[in-house]
Amino acid sequence: MNNNILKSADLKQTKKRNQILAVLEAAPTALTVEEIAELASKDMKMNLSTIYRALNALTDKNIVIKTLYQDGKTYFEINNHKHRHSLICSMCNKKVNIDVCPLEPIEENLAKKTGYTITGHNLEVYGICPECMKHTPSKDPEE
């Protein structure tokens, strides 16, 4: 699969790009550069600058999505070209996809009012997941 992705994007196929894509494809959630480096380095030695260059090329070609999370870190994931929105835990960065698009009526209204052809949008909602809430001391308003 990596060969077809890289070829269709006019990117040279390299072992390191293939390894980075394999790591991202296997990941259940988006990963930081450091996490990618740790997982990719299990099979072959790669320095961070190589990973950054590869991710920049993959992002430029829209193969990988780059997202800045609320924790200030940049996360990367494979772009599966599906319309989706996310609920992200601001403590552990767990990401849950939202099944419905709450922006469709707003998008239609904006298109009518402005004459724009809406080509896309991005929605990320931040909160604290139930697992992290178990480990967070509750704050009683009476205290």
Please characterize this protein's 3D structure.
- The structure is a single chain.
- With about 140 residues, the chain is α+β, with helices and mostly antiparallel strands.
- The protein has two domains: about 1-80, Winged helix-like DNA-binding domain superfamily/Winged helix DNA-binding domain (Arc Repressor Mutant, subunit A, Orthogonal Bundle), CATH 1.10.10.10; about 85-135, Ferric-uptake regulator, C-terminal dimerisarion domain (Dna Ligase, domain 1, 2-Layer Sandwich), CATH 3.30.1490.190.
- Helices cover about 40% and strands about 15% of the residues.
- The chain contains six helices and five strands, in the order H-H-H-H-E-E-E-E-H-E-H.
- The strands form two sheets. Strands 4-3-5 form a three-stranded mixed beta sheet, with no helix packed on it. A two-stranded antiparallel sheet has the order 1-2.
- A hairpin with a 5-residue loop joins strand 1 and strand 2.
- Helix 2 packs across helix 3 (about 35-40).
- The protein is flat, with a radius of gyration of 19 Å.
- This is Fur family transcriptional regulator, ferric uptake regulator.
